[in-house]
Amino acid sequence: MADIRPFKALRYNTATENMSAVICPPYDVISPQQEAALLANDPHNFIRIEYAKTIPGDDETCNRYTRALSHLQKWLRDEVLKQDDKPAYYLHEHTYTFGGEKVIRRGLFARVRLEEWDKMIVRPHERTMAGPKKDRIKLIGTLEADTSPVFGLYQDDGRFIGSVLDQVTAWPEAIEFAGEPGESHRLWVITDVEAVSAIQRAFTEKPIYIADGHHRYESSLAYRNERNNLDPKIPPDAAVNFVMMSLTDMADPGLLILPTHRVIKGLSKNLLYILPERLREHFNVETLKASNGGWENLKTLMAEDSSRFFIFGLSGDDILSLTVKNQPKVEGFMPSGHTATYRGMDVSVVDHVVLEDILGMNAMDEERVAYDHDMDSTISRVKSGEFQFAFILKPVKPETIQAISDAKDRMPRKSTYFYPKLPSGIVVYRLRD
């Protein structure tokens, strides 16, 4: 199935550069505060390429994309960045702390042949929006490079790939560096002929599931199509026909998917008053008393496999736990054409039944709906009065992502949050042969 290949990555010259100071978060999670700190942190921080600043007066010849290209070209001339001599896979261990425990997630940087969705070789699970893709296509086209990887998942039931990677981790690591607070990284460069061949063979029978980076993948696909339309003689194995990915086993113990809670504001007092009654028309509503172990009960219930969801902010400090009364009736409020897996997800129930039908809102109304993957932050934003109440959702499991993808369905937007985000700047894939 998937065509996975090694590549000659552009990487920071570790003889002169401190990797801890030059990597940055992916473009879509960089806050203004982070942007300022990263720009001040190091003159070679990768944010100057990944997310160059927009300046008043920018035009077609001078803009954030041309500035990113200027940095890339200068850093290559100055050997801040250097291209590897041999094609390689790059094994990345991302160590982080969650819930007070140290966790390690393993990913393999590779270039993956771009495929149209209908071939079912690379499989998406979420819907995308046009705006972010325009930005990425422009950056890819200007730089002729993939600056940040698409995060992909694969199944390794026989651990054929895992056994090879286990051997690689016994090698002396090529590089070790710190990341965000509480995070660290190790990177191995895999050029061994037997290891490269074994990895490539193992993937020929596997599809790839997009975990994070749908916009990046679709941007690369659009850019490839654009280039091939302009020049139909581009060879099939040309660099532009591939995209850089970081690939992780679905069974990796470090794979963490956080829920994306919804926090709501801007509703009228009358609507808030009648909301509990309207909810009871469709849901069994149980109150988890905060004074009687309600938050501990919440943690237990969040681990169960059901379309149960929770609301905080409508009943003081207590939590409302909701389950569907009549599944066929509730499914009638959902868009047609979706699978039973989609219709059974708590995020689908909240978006389509509660937000759209009961509250008459657009689930993507960014004026009144915000998203937060951290429960403590979610609760705090309601208690502070910033938001009126919150929908607390359960995390999506990897097998749900697989089921949705295999059925050619798509989850609602903002259904998953893979934690932690992959940094940008560890490796770069050039689209030049």
UniProtKB/TrEMBL annotation:
Highest taxon in the source lineage: Bacteria
Classification via PANTHER family: DUF1015 DOMAIN-CONTAINING PROTEIN (PTHR36454:SF1), LMO2823 PROTEIN (PTHR36454)
InterPro entries xrefs: UCP033563
Name recorded for this polypeptide: DUF1015 domain-containing protein
Any single Pfam family the record assigns to this protein: DUF1015
